[in-house]
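Need the bound structure for pyrazine-2-carboxylic acid, inputs here:
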Amino acid sequence: MRTDTALLLVDVQNDFLPGGALAVPQGDEILPVIASLQSQFEHLVATQDYHPVDHGSFAANHSGKNPGEWIELEGLPQILWPTHCVEGTFGADFPSTLDRSAWKAVFQKGRNPSVDSYSGFFDNARRGDTGLGEYLKNKGIARVFVCGLALDYCVKFTALDANSLGFETYVFTDATRAVNLHSKDGMRALEEFRAAGIICLESKELRSYV
Ligand code: VGL
Ligand code: ZN
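Answer from helper R.:
Posting the output first, comments after.
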């Protein structure tokens, strides 16, 4: 693989897999695809959704509210989630079957209780910066291939931000799955990618981009 290219693994964590607190349907199907992708990239970087237990995106922290309802959180519209990816818990950890031995860095997001953070680059208010963009630029990365969970939230905002920051951005459609709170959310994310100039590809097409 070209040395200016990174594979970005977004939130491949137990809570987003079957049995997890915010399980993404068929989320586990991406694990073998990711295993094969990892062997084809030198530069592997991951993001980790990592919340304090009092995080404002958790329905449990707003009396009378349920997951899926909307509130205003510090001035931003916020959909409420089940309690997930709490710091130090199994749910926040990566699945044991995921090989992390070649990962160069992990960027945590969502640690500020008063703002959610879907993108691996910035929080939803675009105030907090994880440092991922600067990290990639410092490593000479020009092309970013994105995979992980969930297509309609963290993968979507991570890919859109990567593209806005000037990285040539690709998304592996077979190495991501959507939450699909609304049945077409995943499909819409793919449409947004194409409209933004992000290239959607299947992992088997990677050979034409090496
Ligand atoms: C995510 C909802 C809440 C994600 C994280 O990783 O897509 N979705 N927190
Ligand atoms: Zn979260």
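Comments: The first strand starts at residue 5 and ends at 10. The radius of gyration is 16 Å.
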